[in-house]
């Protein structure tokens, strides 16, 4: 009788442990998915910023061409062209930095996807393990019911639980 109780208690503990691990992995998966979504949003934001900067670069390049034409007719326009050229250079550097950041974020996103897949596989394995434990638990419950019919005293002990 005590052996059956001990086995039942051990099976319950293992089932509870498996369920808690499954919940933990689900929470980790949710966290990774949230991080993944944030990184995707950041990439989208940086991509938009990069497009805006590239558009600004194109406008400034057109302005530089315009001012270069005017610079030939006057010295004053030369100073503005230099200023615009510096702005273009700064914007190009910002665009390169944005591209570099996007590449880094894409790599982090890829790594997050890999981790997410890993945790999904772990969750699936834990769910399968949990299902096996549930099946074993049901078998033990049936054995318990059979033993219950034979031992009325055992029924009283279980009723006290």
Automatic annotation (TrEMBL):
Signal peptide: none annotated. InterPro entries: Tropomyosin. It comes from Clohesyomyces aquaticus. This is Tropomyosin. Residues 69-88 are annotated as: Disordered. The lineage of its organism: Eukaryota, Fungi, Dikarya, Ascomycota, Pezizomycotina. Pfam families: Tropomyosin. Keywords: Coiled coil.
């Amino acid at each position: 009788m005590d052996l059956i109780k001990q086995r039942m208690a051990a099976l319950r503990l293992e089932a509870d442990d498996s369920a808690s691990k499954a919940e933990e992995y689900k929470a980790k998966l949710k966290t990774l998915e949230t991080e993944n979504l944030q990184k995707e949003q950041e990439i989208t934001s940086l991509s938009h910023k990069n497009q805006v900067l590239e558009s600004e670069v194109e406008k400034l390049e057109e302005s530089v061409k315009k001012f270069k034409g005017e610079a030939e007719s006057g010295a004053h326009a030369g100073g503005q062209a230099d200023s615009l050229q510096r702005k273009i250079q700064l914007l190009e550097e910002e665009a390169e930095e944005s591209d570099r950041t996007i590449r880094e974020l894409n790599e982090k996103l890829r790594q997050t996807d890999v981790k997410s897949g890993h945790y999904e596989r772990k969750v699936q394995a834990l769910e399968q393990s949990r299902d096996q434990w549930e099946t074993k638990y049901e078998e033990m419950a049936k054995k318990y019911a059979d033993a219950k019919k034979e031992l009325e005293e055992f029924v009283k002990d279980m009723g006290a639980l």
